[in-house]
Amino acid sequence: MSNVKLSKIAFPNRNLGKRRAWILFPKFLFGKGFIGLATFFIIFTSYTFSKDIIVSPNTNISSIKQAIELSQNGDRIIIKKGYYKEHNIIIDKSIQLIGEDYPELDGEKIDDIIIIKSNNVYIKGIVVKNSGSSSMKDIAGVRFDNVKYCTIEDSRFYDNFFAVYLAGSSFCTVKYNIIKSNAQNETSSGNGIHLWKCENITIENNEISGHRDGIYFEFVTDSKIISNISRWNLRYGLHFMFSNGDTYEKNYFSNNGAGVAVMYTKDVSMIDNRFEDNWGPNAYGLLLKDISFSTIERNTFKKNTVGIYMEGGTSLNVNHNSFIENGWALKVLGDCTDDSIKYNNFIGNTFDVSTNSSISVNLFNGNYWDKYKGYDLNKDGIGDVSYRPVSMFSMIVEKTPETIFLLRSIIVDILDIAEKVAPVFIPETLVDNNPSIYEISNREQITNNPTGTASQQITGNK
Amino acid sequence: MKNNTVPEKVKIINKNSGEESNIISLYDTVEQAEPQNEIISIKGLKKSFDKNLILKGINVSFSKGTIAAVMGPNGSGKTTLLKCVLGLVRPEAGEITVNNINIKNNCEYRKFIGYMPQTPRFPENLKVKELIDMLKDVNGNECDYDEELLIKLNLQAIYNKPIGTLSAGTKQRVSGSLSFLFNREIIILDEPTAGLDPVSCEIMKEKIIKEKENGKLIIITSHIVSEVEALADRIVFLLEGNVHVNSTVDELKDRTDESNLNKAIAKIMVNHGS
Amino acid sequence: MAAKKILKYVIFDIMRSRLIITYTLLLLVLSFGIIYLGRDITKATVSLLNIVLLIVPLVSIIFGTIHFYNSQKFIEMLLALPIKRSNIFWAEYLGLAVSLSIGFVIGTGIPLLAYGASVTGVYLLLTGIFLSFIFSGFAFLSAVINKDKAKGIGLSLMIWFYLSILFDGLVLMISLFFNDYPLENVILVLTALNPIDLARVMILLKLDISALMGYTGATFEQFFGSMMGTIFSIGFLLMWITLPALGALRLFNKKNF
Predict the structure, then answer these.
(1) Contact C72 B121 (CB under 8 A)
(2) pLDDT of B36
(3) Is residue A69, in this structure, part of any structural domain at all?
(4) B17 lies in some domain
(5) Which residues in chain C are contacts of B47 at CB distance < 8 A?
């Protein structure tokens, strides 16, 4: 068969691969320890014994299932451009599935399309569409079923119930994928990238839209979510629960039904993300519920109804973020304690901070408030008069939401000024004693480009 | 027009006000305007301000080619009467026709009338020239302008001055000149010589007489009896909202047996008050 | 026809008066100052909104009232001409409203444009023009009602105070007092009853939409979330232009000069 021909062509590459692997060996060893070592051996072994199997329509091997049956651990299955109506493709060998020019796998809305049941599976460059949907079980485009060291990369997912589904898996990577669906309501739709009971997973540079939740984390630890774009999802751009020790950074979340929710978790780093245009009565840039010992740094919250909604937040560091043109930049509920809110910019928000309590045990310090009207006589860049970011009117609106209609009326201005002169209602302790006179340059560190990542490769498809 | 009904009305009103009617009524001898010359006719005109009846049913008419002086003590309703004719004041009852046009809900009839108010005030920021141009413009730029007074009163010299900077007398001169500018058939002048210097005063009087001879009706109000005596053909004397006297100057003198108009008028008022 | 001719001169007259020039210059200085000091254009827009809501109605109604009394003799002069009263009224009203609008657009529009136009800026100018027209109407109404100048100015001040401060205070009290009842529709109706509130809401829809969308309630959601809010505001603002002006016209037609 064509195996011989292909291996000949592949031979120099293989050599090159070996050489490169040897050079990189120390890096792997010291850089990532065991993972690196394991990866090295996987690559090494697969190059040694692998063969390529070509799948193409109108040939002897015209289905992927057929090709998997013919394959052994370490083989590569090359899927030529074409249209493959298949579902329940079970990958139970450590093989690679490589699509050429994005072959389309159409599940015809029946069931799961690909189920990975073996470790060390690598999938690249395919289109997965039309998985089944069900209210009984979570049907997915690609399911990672209790596996390790698997990767899916540079693939497209259209109109699946769940697109990528990882359960009980570890050391897996999902990157450079475009995931789109057209969810109509929350009950009949699934999540873009769904993780349940996983660890050490990397979700990187994906673009997800039109699902229920863009990315879903439940019981996922020590994982990373980096440089993804998640928008126009029905519920949350990122839904994050019971998942300790994770990091998400440089992501872009916008226009999601309810923003991003991080709940019942500790030790999360949220850095350099952008949260934009989440509008609605229950929409938040970032919803925090029962979060502790976490870091929220250098994020930008722009044009959300609520920038950060904090309920039961303990020992959080909210530093160097920028809150721009939100309805409420920060809603800090009375049960939040020991949080520090420092060196943030508050610019053009309707309300900077609101709370439902007259007591505050959180620290506000060194923030830039564009509404600050104090002076700086000694020119040290810190206002000489402290600033109270909670306005009288925001307390009134909290109590009687209809009064929002009186926003920016003269009577409200008068009330706010009166309250500032002689505070009665607003929390005494919620005060920034060192308000910055100048805008703090937080934003230069936001490097991710909302139109970058996988979307650069978007063609006319869908 | 039958005028013999009018004294009855007067009596009724006087009863209402609780006064004894003790008027030398001159109505019987009033010389009425000849119907063919009649240009303004006022019937049963009533007007009150703040429940004070100022005009209590005025019946009077004016004809072309006369100078009529409307006289009376302060607050007798002279200006109100003229303003009713001009449509500036809306009467409560009565009918006014000008050139046989009922003036109610009509504005066209005013193209027969030139008016000089008691105290002129023009848009302060316009220049005199602009004001004149504007009036010509608004009146549809007819060509037959009577600019005699503008020239004689030497107003061309101040054409480029804003009206706000002019003295009261100068404004009065402008106002007077403008009332003649459009060659109206009826000229109504409210205190035309008040505040004018003697020279201007004379020019004004000459103009009034000249225009009368041209067949126009000129109605003036004035307190200056000598001026009225010199100018007026007829006197309409208002007292407490009624036409008390409506006759020629000579007739009035005959009736009161006074050769001096001033005294004649004083006599009317004294008789009324006693 | 005649009205158009008079209009020309009325505008000419008002534009030359020192008051309107002072007003324009005052706005220019204020606007440039606010935008320059504010650095951020959004922040500046908020401050400019206060000018539009506070100063434009105040100046319009007071200047308009004074202007009417000052023009009384001029109006008398016009009334003696063969021109319909209503034409004279419209010329005077439009002359005032247009002049005030031009003064406002120059005084606020130039600084806004100089620092970059925005949709909110355009809406700001639009509401300013609306308010100039509405309060010119109120000015004439109050001047036509009162023969006495001092009384007229007094009434005008009261109208302004009521609409810009007192009214919202009452709405606030009602809202707080009837906290437990659904107030959505009540507040919408109340807003329609005050042109300054309508103008304010129109700007809010551009400036604070993120906050407004936080409200849970079907009517408000529809009001804020669609064009309905803007259409509602503009519709009622137009009504507010016509109502006081027509009222003033009615009285003007009956008035004795």
Answers:
(1) yes
(2) 64
(3) no
(4) no
(5) 256
Considering only CB atoms, which chain A residues are within 8 Å of C162? none
* Nearest neighbour of A410 by CB, restricted to C54, C207, C213: C54
Q: Which chains touch B (3 or more CB pairs under 8 A)?
A: C
Name the minimum distance, in Å, from the CA of C71 to any CA of chain B.
7
**Residue B215 belongs to what domain range?**
28-273
- Whether residues C257 and B120 touch (CB distance < 8 A) is answered with no
In a domain, B227, yes or no: yes
Please indicate whether, in this complex, the C-beta atoms of A409 and C200 are within 8 angstroms of each other: yes
Q: Would you call A375 exposed, middle or buried from its count of C-beta atoms within 10 A (0-12, 13-18, 19+)?
A: exposed
**Same domain for A346 and A414?**
no
One domain, residues A193 and A242 = yes
My answer on whether A407 and A356 are in the same domain is: no
Do A413 and A443 fall within a single domain? no
Is the CB of residue C43 less than 8 Å away from at least one CB of chain A?
yes
Listed residue (C93, C126, C110) closest to C11, CA to CA? C93
How large is the average pLDDT for residues C166-182? 90
Domain that holds residue A172: 81-393+432-448
Chains touching A (at least 3 CB pairs under 8 A) are: C
pTM, 2 dp? 0.79
What pLDDT is attached to residue A115?
A: 96
pLDDT surpasses 90 at B247 = no
Number of structural domains found in chain A:
3
Write the pLDDT tens digit of every residue in B173-191: 998 898 888 888 899 998 8
- CB-CB neighbors (< 8 A) of B110 in chain C: 80-83
Residue B2 lies in a domain: no
- Identify which of C42, C171, C197 has the shortest CB distance to residue A325: C42
- Scanning B67-86 for CB atoms below 8 A from C yields 83, 86
Task: Supply the pLDDT for residue A202.
Answer: 96
What CATH number should be reported for the domain holding residue B234?
3.40.50.300
Q: Does C144 touch chain B (CB under 8 A)?
A: no
| Residue of chain B with shortest Cα separation from C251 | B90
**Interchain contact, A404 vs C214, CB within 8 Å:** yes
C130–chain B nearest CA distance, Å: 26
Average pLDDT for runs of 10 along chain A of length 462: 41 43 50 58 59 91 92 93 94 95 94 95 96 89 96 95 96 96 84 96 96 96 96 94 94 92 94 92 92 95 94 94 94 92 93 86 92 88 90 87 88 86 79 90 50 41 34
Query: Mean pLDDT: which of A123-132, A399-408, C17-26, C119-128 is highest?
Result: A123-132
Do A6 and A149 lie in one domain? The reply is no
Q: Is residue B68 part of a domain?
A: yes
Domain ranges of chain C: 2-254
**pLDDT score recorded for residue C131:** 96
Please indicate whether, in this complex, the C-beta atoms of C73 and B120 are within 8 angstroms of each other. yes
Judgement on whether residues A294 and A404 belong to the same structural domain of the protein:
no
Cβ–Cβ gap A409/C197 under 8 Å: yes
CA distance C203 to chain A (A): 10
- Do A130 and A33 reside in the same domain of the chain? no
Number of compact structural domains in chain B: 1
Smallest CA–CA distance from A283 into chain C, residue:
C214
Of residues C187 and A15, more confidence is placed in C187
Return the CATH number at A93.
Answer: 2.160.20.10
Using the beta-carbon criterion (under 8 Å), do C53 and A348 form an inter-chain contact? Answer: no
